NAD-dependent epimerase/dehydratase domain-containing protein
Amino acid sequence: MASSANKEEAVCVTGANGFIGSWVVKTLLEQGYTRIHVSIYPGTDASHLFTLPGASSATLTVFEADILDPDAIAKAVENCRGVFHLASPNTLEEPKDPQTELILPAVQGTINVLQAASRLGVRRVVLTSSISALIPNPSWPSHKPYDETSWTDLDYCKAHKVWYSMSKTLAEKAAWDFAEKHGLDVVAIHPATCLGPSLQPGLNASCAVLLNLLQGSKDPQENYWLGAVHVKDVAKAQILLLETPAASGRYLCTNGTFQFSDFADRISKLFPEFPVYRFNGKTHPGLKDCKDAAKRLIDLGLVFIPVEDAVRDAVESLKSRGFLKQEETVTI
Ligand SMILES: NC(=O)c1ccc[n+]([C@@H]2O[C@H](COP(=O)([O-])OP(=O)(O)OC[C@H]3O[C@@H](n4cnc5c(N)ncnc54)[C@H](OP(=O)(O)O)[C@@H]3O)[C@@H](O)[C@H]2O)c1
């Protein structure tokens, strides 16, 4: 597959100090990118990015930009040939005000990034959407593995208060409308539950799902689950999508689709010392197992890391950062 990479041209990463964003920066450095615009929420810390291998011989420039501030975003995006747009509120907690806390920043933030990209001649934007723009979709046929043609049912989300999925779906729809109207090259990636070692000090939402499961949570992730993926693969896929001229449309990024109950069973076998809840039966009756659900990325050459490795790496990282205590054991 032909690559359009000129690694000396600048690229911008929004949400660069978050879980996936930090891995995108790390992977860009590993792959020889030399000029990275690190766009972060004003007042937050990006110091861990400067200790990454290769950071000292590259130019990392920090831009403090709320994605709701078009002028600040434009400064971050200026002179970049590619933009990885990741900044978006990422929480599965119930918000007090979904419109202000989730939907507005996701949708208007995306439009602000795309407007800046279009005006400033960015050649491609890789938009981090989510499986949460594919599901929940209760009308998806249960015999068919989920793929990129699925869209989240917004009426279902409203009725069941699934606000995060609503925010990601509305943001992606707005992005496609904008791309079509303005002739901007946008490619979207849809990661499943993303796991692995954290480079940033805080705990992000997807690693919290694993942490809670290890601590005995009975939450079946009803509306938020298709499968899991190593954060390293998500970062690699993002760069692959920037560099592959023929890439277009939506790319599901998961190492297979499978039941959350099966995931819990696998975790319980891997870590018998933790009180992992074993669900009785399927947690996701309409979800069909599929090993190569991310066929579009596999066809571009991405080889997925086993989910077990993603989990082991995440657990080690949770332990080393003090989120998961060693002494938690199953009480009989
Ligand atoms: N992790 C997953 O499993 C997963 C799966 C599918 C899709 N995604 C998507 O991937 C992206 C990154 O997620 P993540 O897991 O890396 O979460 P994360 O660690 O919470 O990163 C999100 C980043 O966005 C920033 N942000 C939020 N609102 C902002 C605003 N108004 N202005 C500027 N920056 C803002 C956050 O800044 P703060 O430092 O202030 O928090 C944070 O750095 C998100 O778009 C998410 O929806 C994640």
